[in-house]
Amino acid sequence: MAYLAMFHWGWLLGAFVLGFCMGWIAVVYRGAPVPKVWIQRLSVLAVVVVGIAIAKLVPGRFGYWLDLGLALFGFYLVGCAIGSWLRDWVVSRHVPAA
Amino acid sequence: MHGLFRWSSKWWPGLIPLAILWAAAAWFSTVPLEADIAARSNAALKSTILDKTRITVAGRDVSFAAEAFSEDGRRSAVASVEAAPGVRLVNDETRLVAEAKPFVWVAERDNVRVTLWGTAPLPASKARIAEAARAALSGTEVVDRMGLARGAPPRFDAAAVLLLDQVAKLKDGKIVMSDAGVSLSGMARDLGGREAIAAALKNLPEGFAVAANEVKAPPYIFQANKDPVAVTLTLSGYVPDNNVHAALVATAGRKFANEKIVDNLKASIGAPSGFSAAVTSALGALSRLSTGTLVVSDREVKLSGDALYEAAAGQIRAGLARDLPTGWTAKSEVSVKPAAAPVDSTVCQQLFTQNLSKNRIRFETASASINADSAGLLDRLIETAMRCPSTNVEIVGHTDGDGDAAFNQTLSEKRALAVEDYLVKAGLPADRFSTVGYGSAQPIATNDTDEGKLQNRRIEFMVRQ
Fold first, then answer.
1. Rounded to a whole number, what is the distance in Å from the CA of A28 to chain B's nearest CA?
2. Is B445 within 8 Å of B455 (Cβ atoms)?
3. Which of A3, A19, A65 lies closest to B14 in CB terms?
4. Identity of the residue in B8, B15, B88 whose CB atom sits nearest the CB atom of A63
5. Which residue of B has its CA nearest to A54?
6. A18 and B18 in contact by Cβ < 8 A?
7. What angle do CA B171, B173, B178 make, to 5 degrees?
8. Residue B14 is nearest to which of A11, A76, A85, comparing CB atoms?
9. Are B18 and A21 a contacting pair at CB < 8 A?
10. Does B21 touch chain A (CB under 8 A)?
11. Residue B388, C-beta contacts closer than 8 angstroms, at least 6 positions apart
């Protein structure tokens, strides 16, 4: 993982920034949310895929691409979480002041 | 925390650009990543000893094929690749180098190059052996066709290096090491080379033994070339030692009194038994030729050239075969020189005088038997007599002043008769010759010195109309 992070830091930073932006927007976004049941199903799917990656079941380039996708997805999620939390903190700080 | 769950349900639109980012990352990074991992894997194997190493990378998975020289080395190499940064999986396609049974190594020399065949135990020893071959055989092309295999006997490298030194002593041949048995065949480069190789083989490392040593010595060559134009006798090749050398040169001096002796002989061991006697006898035969070459190769004597007249050719052929020591063979290619133009009596006398002034007919001490060293001179005198068939010749014998005058008188007459007899046997008509002896009555030099006596002991040919 450390090797992947060093080799792909640019791409991972891109995923993080993308996630940060999406998280920033999500706090005030008025579109339809993903139903809870779908989130649960997708979470299970994500766990299964991570399990497959950890078990190194997919060989060769496909295995690498799976690792790469999961790494990007992980950074995206972290970016989303930080973005949303920060936006929420900014918004809640401004409301009392208003 | 509750907020985070709520917001996460709205994070999905970002997955679309994330998927695009993923595709782009996969597209642009795969090949550089594979190249980087291949370089790191190769770097991890730098200190390991392997043969036929092949590394191919797909994604982060490394297919590692190689031949290792021990099980420990093989495991350690695989572990090194597994530990290389970035490697996810290693497809282990390594195996041990095949074991050679028997373990055969060959050094073969021909006229042009030395070829190394067979197997070496490790790449380092293969390189060391090839390097030793180049050092031992400087100036000769060395072709390395050695493979690698396990199963070499202990101290293999040392044995191979020692054997390469022996290859340098061969003109051509082959040295085969099969396990710890060494077989040699071929021809030594120099006389004595065979013995030098046999001596060096005693220093083979412990455990090695000579299974067969069939290295032959090069032929022991002696050559003599009689050149009538340059009036030289050139001696070349080998003689056993300095004593034989001096004796042969002295013999040549007596038998070839007219020719300048060019001595290019070298002393060397390895002469066949009877060498000295055979060469002396063969030089006698050569001295009777007008032009000719004598080649003594081991126990074979080859004489070629032109005799001065027909009867001499027959005598030379028969005499050479008869006079050689037992076990020697003779090959004569003696033809007869075309007869020289006839001359008148004056020129005939000049030719006789010329021949007898440079050399003299020798006899055994106090005897009328002609010394074999004079055969060449007598042939020239016979040839001269043949050129003036209408003349009569008086053969005159003289002795030195030593001893009883009556004995000397008789001896001089007998010696003149012996010469006449020799000429008649050569095919000249007896009625052309008469003989007379003067004992010591007509000296041409003082009898007080050995040199003077030598000059007084003589045969003269006087042409009579």
1. 9
2. yes
3. A19
4. B88
5. B88
6. yes
7. 145
8. A76
9. no
10. yes
11. B342, B343, B344, B345, B347, B348, B463
Tell me which DSSP letter residue B140 carries.
Answer: S
- Beta carbons within 8 Å of B210's beta carbon, 6+ residues apart: B181, B182, B183, B184, B201, B204
Under an 8 A CB cutoff, do B10 and A33 touch?
A: yes
Among A89, A65, A7, CA closest to B3: A89
pLDDT digits (tens, 9 = 90+) for B309-342: 888 898 899 988 888 898 999 999 999 988 888 8
Nearest to B382, CA basis, from B449, B319, B441, B433: B433
- Chain B neighbors of A18, CB-CB under 8 A: 14, 17-18, 21
CB–CB of B108/B158 below 8 Å?
no
List residues bridging with B458 in a β-sheet: B398
Give the pLDDT confidence of B374-421 residue by residue, as tens digits. 888 999 999 999 998 889 999 999 998 888 889 999 999 999 999 999
B82 pLDDT more than 80: yes
**Mean pLDDT score, B196-213:** 92
Inter-chain residue contact B29 with A11, CB threshold 8 Å: yes
- With bands split at pLDDT 50, 70 and 90, how would you rate the model's confidence at B358? confident
Q: Does B6 touch chain A (CB under 8 A)?
A: yes
Above 60 in pLDDT, residue A97?
no
Question: How high is the pLDDT of residue A1?
Answer: 66
Write out chain B residues lying below 8 Å of A80, CB-based. Answer: 7-8, 11, 14
Yes or no, beta carbons of B33 and A7 under 8 Å apart: yes
Q: Which two tokens stand for residue B422?
A: 């020799």
Which residues make Cβ contacts (< 8 Å) with residue B68, sequence separation at least 6? B48, B49, B50, B51, B74, B77, B94, B95, B96, B97
Across residues B118-136, what is the average pLDDT? 92
Q: Given the cut 0.85, state whether the ipTM is greater than it.
A: yes
How far, CA to CA in Å, does B18 sit from each of A14, B60, B300, B384? 9, 22, 97, 121
Catalogue all structural domains in chain B, each as residue range(s) with its CATH number. 16-96 (no CATH), 104-216 (3.40.1520.20), 221-336 (3.40.1520.20), 345-464 (3.30.1330.60)
Give the dihedral sign, CA B13/B18/B20/B21: positive
- Check CB contact under 8 Å for B30 and A64: yes
